[in-house]
Amino acid sequence: QMEELSLMATESLHSNHTIWFGHFPTSTIISPAPGIRTLMSSATAYLCGHLHTMGGLMPALHTQHRGGTLELELGDWKDNRKYRILAFDHDLFSFADLNFEEWPVVLITNPKSFLYSSSAHEPLVRILHSTHIRILAFSPSVITSVEVYIDGVHLGSARRVSGPLYVLKWSPQNYSEGFHHIDVTVQDASGRISTRGHIFAMEENLSLRFGFLPSLILLADHYILARVLFGLIVLLQIALLIVFRCLQKPALKEKPGLLTLTSYSLHVFSKTNTFYYSVLVLNLYTILGPWFVGELIDGQVGACFSFGVFVGGAFFQGSMTFLVGILQMLFFNVPLMAYLCWCLLQRCQGHSFRSHLRHLRRRLPAALVHLAMALLLAWQVYSCYFLQRTYGTLAFFLSPMRTWLVVLTSALIYKTWTLKSSELRTYIVEIKNCQSY
């Protein structure tokens, strides 16, 4: 694919402009050296979707690559009816992101927005030598007026040249220094009014940057960040298990606080072979073993790992798999270990599962802990159903990280409450001695 794209990029080098289209933002695309951004560096813009507006949190998810290529997410058409108009005016690229059936539509093509300018791809000096402000205005009704303002001063009414093009004479030399703001207000015969504006400048050495969050979302290589974060979470939990397994259990000499009890529960958990080895293997398997085996694409059985997918005799590096792994760790593996530690501590303090059920009102915090774990387990069960619906029955049954984990979790929880008291005798005695202070 990189070779094919490289050939297309080479063929387009002699064009005035090149626009790239793709579904995914570059931050989520895995590509071999020199990388997809370098490959498209001769392009004016890359238009993509997938993230859209992130549920409305990022209405303008736009940024610019180091080489000057714009990366422009667009809101979705399916639910929000977003669309985009692109225009080239004397090789100056402009665009507007719009809502369907909101009129009039306005796009200022000269002077173009400074934020979306690139001296590497556009002859920006043409703005300074231009004779007219140029505007595209569309409406189902007749456009009755196009008013132009710069820095709050009314410059006049633009006249229609042909089609949607409206122009107004100006003297760009009056705005040759610093930033300036242009606003255009368009009214149609139906009485609808629309205003659009942006910041422009003639000096190329000025600086105007895109927002930090949009740039972070679109420019950071998220699959690398997700890979590192996933690995750190898994290794941290494994390290915690091993450290508490090797550390000598401290003696409790007085009524312990929350931090001491938490540490004590980790000692009990790590020094009980059933739980220690089960959770240790679970975490090692999460990072190394196949999560499920199933029909990943039509007619092709494959295996999904945290680090990628084997299917059709080929291996594909993981990206979203690491994100799924992070969610699995944060919302199941880690809470499961915390819950099992808490259950063992309850056993050491002389409680049983039945006593919790009998005294729910008096032990509301305990009831909430059980409820939280029940909800997480229900989420895990639902993920098994979702896996079956997505990848078929084979994936449901051959899924250690989904179906089998539900069985393992149920067995471990059952084990905490049915473990013989003799196996916890040392801890029970020590806790009782502390409670007698």
Automatic annotation (TrEMBL):
Keywords of the record: Membrane, Transmembrane, Transmembrane helix
TMEM62 Ig-like domain: residues covered? 101-195
Q: Where are the transmembrane segments?
A: 224-244, 275-293, 322-345, 366-388, 394-414
List, for all copies, the residue spans of the domain called TMEM62 C-terminal.
224-358
Tell me where on the tree of life, at the top rank, the source sits. Answer: Eukaryota
Name recorded for this polypeptide: TMM62 protein
Specify one Pfam family. Answer: TMEM62_C
